[in-house]
Amino acid sequence: MTTSEGIARPVAADSSRAPGPAPTGPTAPPGPSGLAAPSGPSGLAAPSGPSGLAGLLRGRGLRRGQDDFAVELDGFNLITEHDPDLIAVVADAADVRAAVAYAAARELPIAVQATGHGPSNPADRGLLISTRKLRGVTIDPLARSARAEGGVQWYEVVQAAAEYGLAPLSGSSPLTGVTGYTLGGGLGLLARRYGYAADLVTAVEVVTADGRAHRATADRDTDLFWALRGGTGNFGVVTALEFGLVPVARLYGGGLFFPGDAAADVLHAWRVWTGSVPDELTSSFALLRLPDIEAVPDFLRGRLTAHIRIAHLGSADSGADLVAPLRAAAPLVVDTLAEIPYTRSGEIHTDPIEPMPYHARSLMLRELDETAADGLLALAGPGADCIDLVVELRQLGGALGRPAPVPNAVDHRDAAFALSTVSLPDGRPPLVVDGMAPWGTGRRLLNLLASPDTAHLARTGYEPATYARLADVKARVDPKNLFRFNHNIPPLAQPARPL
Ligand SMILES: Cc1cc2nc3c(=O)[nH]c(=O)nc-3n(C[C@H](O)[C@H](O)[C@H](O)COP(=O)(O)OP(=O)(O)OC[C@H]3O[C@@H](n4cnc5c(N)ncnc54)[C@H](O)[C@@H]3O)c2cc1C
User: Fold this and answer.
1) Which domain holds residue 328?
2) Ligand 1, pocket-test mutation among 133, 181, 411, most atoms within 8 A of CB
3) Reduced to 3 states, what is the DSSP secondary structure of residue 485?
4) Is 177 in the pocket of ligand 1 (CB under 6 A)?
5) Which residue among 13, 17, 170, 368 is least crowded, i.e. fewest CB within 10 A of its CB?
């Protein structure tokens, strides 16, 4: 997703809520906390005291109607908001165990939120566990690995890893949560060279619906380990992830912006060009229709713009050689390509940093031949009846087309491009994504779906066998579907075998 905000104003989204140092690019939320007692009309629990939720936590517990309740619900995508009876702002993994056990004993459904970048199925009751206070990050430079607690945002890992010349497989926005992003696969800026973020995960610390803590690895809780990496937030509350880092300190990256009336030339040039680039180059093409508001830089305001985003693992000279055909595709409006440290990688897409309401939709494409590109231009190019803010194509292939070192639940290895759109709430059906169905695999990257109207689409994130296995693991770790406020994979009625 892209807006111009990060180009002109790389400032904190809400620095009053941001613990720790500010990132170099677009910055971050999180914030206050406090615990109180569940009770009230729902009769869910005693007020504060040893028997109430508040008495069980080191963090905060709040019930509907209390001060700060609304503040703790705040998330990035304002298209919807959870509406639980209780919130647990957990301070550590023990709090997560206590909160889950509390909910399980009362059969309360549980929602989990870190940043609110990926809402789907909002809670209408039950308990919301806010992980945004779980902010620990540890880097092991020798092992080239990181451990990030369940509420960490990417910019925190990016900065910590950069001290050792390392980088995580983070995505376009430094503000998304490491955990939510990775559980959904994680399609990042270096993806064609290194694969999905979930592919580099080596351990997941998770509290399942029975309140038990697991450390799932390739050797322990192996089915759970498989499911967590790609199966989204269906299997428990992740308290920490461990994952590999890659030796990337600098890259040749940024964006090429072209006038909207050159969109056809630019898209066709990019499409042909993607057929010959090495895996070291990950790129995307976007049609931007950004509003005529002050937050958007002049050159993008109130007009159609074609935007190519580049992340090249190589020297500036080799990168410039590679992108020469793109620069020649049409007259450029703005060219930000340069050698940059990975800490500035948020400038490549320049995603929005201020909360806003939007739908995000996606479809994986088998191919992008000339007809498909023309189809997209007819749906979203100059003169099209399209009001999507962003229509984006990410090139896949390379490591994304190869199996993970330890098999996981991320499918899509056969897809060639990921199409996604971002639109304001306007009541329209997803015309662009639906219109591109003839070139689609029929599957969607769940990470690139947001808003309640995508809540029923979990099945489309997987091949049938993968989905069936996920539903089986779900039945073994969450048979009552307590973790249902997500792209939900309901449990199989009869699991195949115990975990
Ligand atoms: C501006 C922007 C840019 C993005 N760029 C990319 C990108 O480049 N590549 C990509 O793959 N995706 C991208 N995404 C999608 C993003 O990765 C998903 O929306 C992801 O789910 C966000 O996780 P979060 O924790 O930040 O959001 P939240 O809304 O807080 O969480 C989303 C869901 O993740 C689950 N979850 C979060 N934390 C936990 C936890 N600790 N334990 C269990 N479940 C948890 C829950 O089910 C929750 O409902 C982008 C989204 C936005 C808004």
Assistant:
1) 250-459
2) 181
3) coil
4) yes
5) 17
